[in-house]
ABC-2 family transporter protein (Coprococcus ammoniilyticus), 192 residues
Amino acid sequence: MFSEWNNGYAGQMIIRCGRRRYLTARGIAAFVSGGCVIAIPLLVNFLSIACFMPIIVTDPMALQSVVPGRALLGDLVYEAPALYAAWYIFIDFIYGGLFALMALAITQFCNNGFVLTILPLMFNCCMYYGVHNLIPDINAYNISLIPNPAQQGMKLTWHSLFLSMSGTFLILIVLFAASNYKKDVLRTGAME
């Protein structure tokens, strides 16, 4: 998006459709494309594995699964593993979209495409190593651990899942809206 501000495309679109509509469309496009980048390969992998291996019901006594039965939807792993995989592909879609929104939200602060690409990964690594090792009591709210379907080392609940997703989404939306407030006037040089 930083190239759109620099070459004047964003200013043209804001004049034609309005700031709120343009930024909403950019946010939705980034969220959906980021989610698809994560979910489509996972879905293709799941379907290709399912073509070669039939879905075998997991036996908890055989220690075939790393998901404990007391985990969130842990019983689904043993009763309907395909539904559990589909559930986590959906969770990964949402988190892929959130990390794409993160890159979009910082475009106003950085003009380097490589930094914009690598910053969500670095944030994820910092959250994983920092929160996971320094404050292990709040691992259920750690956004770098939730997309892992094994749910190891955390007590994920519906409350923590919803709170971490919605909190991250709201923070990114506020950051995105604040970073793009009246930037078209400043970027086009109309004030100079």
Confidence is low (pLDDT under 50) at residues 184-192. The first helix runs from residue 2 to 7. The two ends are 23 Å apart (CA to CA). The chain has eight helices and no strands.
